[in-house]
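## tool: complex_structure
## caller: assistant
## args:
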Amino acid sequence: DVKVTQSSRYLVKRTGEKVFLECVQDMDHENMFWYRQDPGLGLRLIYFSYDVKMKEKGDIPEGYSVSREKKERFSLILESASTNQTSMYLCASSRGGASAGELFFGEGSRLTVL
Amino acid sequence: AQTVTQSQPEMSVQEAETVTLSCTYDTSENNYYLFWYKQPPSRQMILVIRQEAYKQQNATENRFSVNFQKAAKSFSLKISDSQLGDTAMYFCAVISNFGNEKLTFGTGTRLTIIP
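## result:
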């Protein structure tokens, strides 16, 4: 069974804390993505990576950073969490080329910032 | 830039009926792919169906089919013989510009199948 695994399903953090969200995929996919999902706004792309050590800003990168040191792992970092970052975070991966839109998703990480 | 619009935030239908979810999109590219994704309650999102823009034939996957109207930039999803397990959020998405491979999603339609 192919899998995208997110390290935490639920997190509660305080304003100003540093937050790490980890994502691992076992499909040898080139592309990895971090999305944020909010009611009425759909999925918004935060960052994506198409290769190890490569990263590209998505539509809402402010307040976030990412790291991809190994092909299978893509981490999302909130340097100083704020209440407006309370959300569901979805990690996904895909192959490159014509299959780039066929995303495999993790179960999501619901972050609450108090 | 590419955009996706889903104008139906919520829909409901009786079990065994047919339902159509609407989606319109915009892209300046000629080569693009369209997708419908399904997110069941508290479960992970999965791909339902995809359509290549250069193919005139509408894609089908079992009870799921699309109505792709390229000139109108419309991409609706039809679910036939709806089942309780079809209850989910459905997201339409488009990808183009394959040198910068990122998918753009719509805001979603929450579909409820009523027993």
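## assistant note: Chain A has a mean pLDDT of 93. Chain A is about 0% helix and 50% strand. Handing back to user.
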